[in-house]
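**User:** My hope is that you can spare some time for a protein that puzzles me. I have put the entry right below:
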Amino acid sequence: MKKNIIYIGIALIVGLLGGFLLFGGDSTDKATNSAKDNHEHSEEIATNQMWTCSMHPQIMQPEPGDCPICGMDLIPAESGADGLNANEIKMTDNAMALANIQTSLVGQGQIGNNSLKLSGKIKANEESNAVQVTYFGGRIEKLYVNSTGERVGAGQRLATIYSPELVAAQQELLTASSLKESQPELYKAVRNKLKLWKLSEKQINAIENSGKVQENFPVYATVSGTVTQKMVEEGDYVKQGQPLYKIANLNTVWAEFDAYENQIASLKVGQTIKVTTNAYRNEVFDAKVSFIDPLLNSSTRTVVVRAVLNNKNDLFKPGMFVEGKIEGAQESTSSKITVPATAVMWTGERSVVYIKTNPNEAVFEMREVLLGNANGDTYTIIEGLENGDEVVTNGTFTVDAAAQLQGKKSMMNTAGGKTMTGHEGHLGIQGNNSGDSKGNTDHSEMKERIAVSNKFQGQLKQVFDDYILLKDALVNDDAKSAQQAGKQIIQSLKYVDMKLLSDEKAHNHWMTIQKELNTSADAISSNTDISKQRGHFKHLSAHMISSVQLFGVNENVYIQFCPMADNNKGAYWISLEEEVRNPYYGEAMLTCGEVRDTLK
């Protein structure tokens, strides 16, 4: 029995040893191979790993180290796990909703309404204008119409004048009256002389019957209408035939529109034009094209298109902005790709749009396009888009701003790519300008800057000044003042005259920016919660920066950045001072941020 137990024990030991020899080595090899594979994979990941700064996410370096801006240790950046291409950007649902970003599918003739839209102003009908003059010289003793805008009727007394000539002529009349039986021709000649000075038979008879010389004579209106200009004051000496007032009959007015030269072929006299104005949003007024200017304005490259509007109810005021739509004026688009003007951004050298590259997610990429003719609110695309492409048609500038913030290819940044050292231009405007050691960039020679008139810059400057008031209110944690500043921005935007932009593309460019500024300012003015105001201020700032970059405001400004704003996504703003005063946090973190750019 003992021997059997020993044999069984020896067999068990041998079996265990054999199993180890057969399987143990393979497991060891597998473990070794697995560790080796994991090590190699880790090395591969480490090779592709990029490093960034938690406070300055624009810094991207291929190896760990210190942030070149603040000196903090760099941390591993997220690798391309999102599966995006180099120049694609992805936006959150919240950002899409806040910016009201909308897209449309491109198709042959699908976008476009076969109509031509024109913008213009109401003017007084020059055919009904009149100048009220005095028919005798003298000194104005009294004016009875003292301001423009007053209505006058034919025969209404406008002024009284002391005239030495009339005093002498009246004395002649009284003398000739006593001799009218013996010298009827002399008497008749004297009366006719007074009639040449527009004295009526009734006035002449009154002088003759009274036997007295009248010193002051009235001037009566010869036409009915509205005084558009007062040209004299009481006490002035006037000559015979000198104008006293300009009077316009506003029963009919002119609606004068500007048409660009590539639209002229679609226009002809007699076309029906539907006129709308912001004053009466729900009303459409029909008129006929009565005149197309034969001369092209060489500075604006436009011609004047005129229509006559009935104004018996005094609805239209000279100077009022109007829009006109001519149905059927646009040439057929059955074989052409067209997009709304709001989809196109223009830098002066390039035209770009943003396309949605993923139908199921908010992923966008910039694409350059070649534009054809413009027709009202649409552009014909010659190259760059195909049927089925989905383009951003509303909120285009917000998408572009997001691309700039992420260092991707954008309207102003043709190359794309993250800033590597912190010493280049930080708003994606590299390539034309090199920054100084502080990361500031001189934009005084930006090729992308659009040349505009001083008057337009002055109007934009007022909007910018109101923006600075809003920024200061947020710095001071003053929600009420921020509301008021938002309202002021809306009012100032109304006075920016788009007709001052001589180029059609610049005109449409500003229309898009103005719409975005107005939307953000309206959201700020209607909110009492300062945190919500600051959320909309980020979008307002992005579009304000675009407008200053494109058009300028004749003032040096600083583009500043807070990396912690918007849940550590970062946000920009504009300041007149280099010293940082943070509008996104106010007193809580007043000096958080840095100067990223200087626009000169």
